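COURSE: Structural Biology Practicum
ASSIGNMENT: Worksheet 4, Part C
STUDENT ID: 0417
INSTRUCTIONS: Below are two proteins. For each, the amino acid sequence is given first, followed by its structure token string. Answer the questions at the end about the second protein only.

PROTEIN I
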Amino acid sequence: MHVDTGGADGDASTAQVAGLDPADAAAGGTGRTKAAIDKDKEAKRALAKQAASAHAAFRCSSSDALGALRALCAYEAAEAEEAGGGAAFCAANHMHLRNLRFVWCWCSPLNA
């Protein structure tokens, strides 16, 4: 893909005229439009905000360990309610199933 950076007279570049992100196009990128890149960034910000909100329910101001224990207890309750409940809990609360399952399997007295 050819990207014209514009002339010495300050004309707009071909990438800008086409609506592409000039830095992405100049670097030989995907050629996505700046609007598409901005939309992806906004979606990532919204997802991060949702995750932070979900994680806030388990935070404990006095101890990170107590926050982790709250999350582990909630995971254990979800797992006890129904098979696969832990996976649904993790998806809803933006948590890593693998990590909670590992701690639950090694630390839970129900699994001893």
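PROTEIN II
(use this one for the questions)
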Amino acid sequence: MADYHILEVGLAGDQARIVFHISVPNENNSAGVNLRTALRQFRSLSTKVPFIDQNEKDLIADGEIFELVESVTFDPELTNAQKNQIIKDRAIVLLQTFPDKIRSILEFWGFDGTAV
């Protein structure tokens, strides 16, 4: 499975739209709901990448992988290798930090309570 897919590059060569695949932690939130289940309930899960294989599609549909779409901007004078390194560096940061954002967003998903 790929960590990211490049969907398109701007005509000027200074921007790329990328889908990053972030692993969703397999753990329960404060309400006792597994984060992958909570993600499936929270939003419709389908891929934005038309050219991925069925295995990746299944991981996304099952809530195991979260797709994050971002635009990355760079100096058009950079080489393709340099641009690719910028994208890889961004992927590394997201793979390390975004699971905590998922935890935060879904922390109380499924929690029920009463006022009295």
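ANSWER KEY EXCERPT:
Q1: The chain is about 35% helix and 20% strand.
Q2: The helical segments are 35-42, 54-61, 80-105.
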